[in-house]
Write a structure and sequence with these properties.
The chain is of the alpha+beta class. It contains 25 helices and 16 strands. The strands form 4 sheets. A 6-stranded mixed β-sheet has the order 2-1-6-3-4-5, with helices on both faces. A 6-stranded mixed β-sheet has the order 8-7-12-9-10-11.
Amino acid sequence: MHNGYMGKILRVDLTSETITVEEPSPDFYRKHMGGSALNLYYLLKEMPAKVDALAPENILGLSVGVTTGVSISGQSRMTATAKSPLTGAIGDSQCGGFWPAKLKFAGFDGIIIKGKAAKPVYLWVDDGKAELRDASHLWGKVTGEAEAAIKDELGDSKIEVLQIGPGGEKMVRFAGLINMCNRANGRTGMGAVMGSKNLKAVAVRGDTKPQVADKEGLQELKKWGAKTFPTADVAGLGKLGTAGVVSVQHAEGGLPTYNFNSGVFDGWEAIDGQTLYDTLLAGSQEGQQDRKGRDTCHGCIVRCKRVVDFNQGSYAAEPLYGGPEYETLAGLGSYCGIDDLAAICQANELCNKYGIDTISGGATIAWAMEAFEAGVLTTADTDGLELKFGDAAAMVKLVEMIGERQGFGDILAEGSARAAADLGKGAEFLITAKGQEPPAHMPQVKRSLALIYAVNPFGSDHESSDHDMTYEENTYKAFQDRYESLGLKRPGPAQQLDAAKVEFARITQQFFGMLDSVNLCHFVWGPSWPLYGPEQTTDLVKAVTGWDITLQELLEVGERRINMMRAFNAREGVARDQDKLPAKFFERPLSGGPSDGVKVDKAEFEAALVEYYQQCGWDDNGIPKRETLERLGLEWVADQLGL
């Protein structure tokens, strides 16, 4: 056996109904680590350029990493990668839960899926073996029903199921993959890709734990984490989850409100993490103060996942479908001017049932609300629905209509950018980058995100780099040792996007790219506030694999992943012309609170874009230069691009 990884990739051709096993070399694993970089290798090697994202030729990779399944917090992660039906560029999305570790225990480091099945099927991976099974009876079922049916059919309640809901079946362009009925590969439309292939689910079972090179070293890291966690910054996620960020973002003027027109929300307290904890979390009525309403991923001490359970007026929620994270509370809440917490929880449950992304879903509804209030959309466009900010019932109804692709929901299921194009109006209200709606972190306030949202290969994303507030003059000292290990020694004032801030964005983007290839949780492993820092991340990979690896080599894994993504996009015709932000972020200042009057400075942004390209070793069009690709061992990619 290998250390850390299983040494086997499952290859599935749905068209021919053939399943094979590939055994890459140890050098391949060290170069790519798993996850995102591993998936990209297969997409670039085997997928023709410019195929339709919903065509059989699109390749879907589902991969874990070299540390997945070992006994430490934050390791049970999986990355799904394919061409995105939402953006037309590379698509990439991560999930947690128990499915990632269980795939490793079943004997595989990843699954590479091609083709399209003649009828609905699901893939059954059982302790080193795999087969395709009929899923016609599962098609159309929401996630909870389908998962229960699969477990009953296979006779084991402990099987883990990754699946699509009706939203993925109907190819909602921002449909996600769902496991445990509440953990999502939410972004970039990976559920639509799986739906286009007639693949309903991937069920996994196995008990083969990965071998570890240095068990004592791993145990020391685990003990340090357990001892440090109670006083660490990440400890707050245990009690309130990411929902606790609502109050922080509002106080800083960075809580996206009314489709990003303001950074403050009068109803913030009603949707805050503390309110969620006190009222709707499972167990809140029984007064449980330790683990009430908290779930976790395999082997993780943080327990940050929310679980709600209530029956309140028009709304009721089941614990099976979890509870809202910060992004969801904002996307389905403040984006839309909604302060009805029960309605947001209900909409979150619908998203998990139908398998659709709460971020793009909420932002697309917010776009429609602003366009309607401005008189650009009318009831003739919306099937008679009055779409006003603050209308919780309309928001919940639209989530269901999107999941079913019914009426106006069929238009919104294309995403806001395509909806505006199809309707021929409303583009002035868009907040998208590369066609993807942004998460609930405002580039007007966190200025490095203005750059990252634009240049990130799969569209605006908040988990592709660190955020400004940890790299400013008044906060830097708390994370100084960690940042200095990455060569980051030039913190500056807030709302500044100079060469030093570009360096911060670029290097932390490489670090996060590595995390999404090793497949480690950003809440546990990171460059600043998470439990473990960069040097400990290196120690983890060393202990698990036995490789004499350095932090610089790990950063190169992330850099390699980013360059592979940019190369993929270049093949699809996506380059500098798509590295942009919507006009709204430059032209319309925010209104109210600490960020009143703030907007992204166009000249500063353009200068930062040029600086970023230069620092990355890319040409003026944002395409990696040959010497950059060669330095990263990607000569074959340079040949593909004709460099």
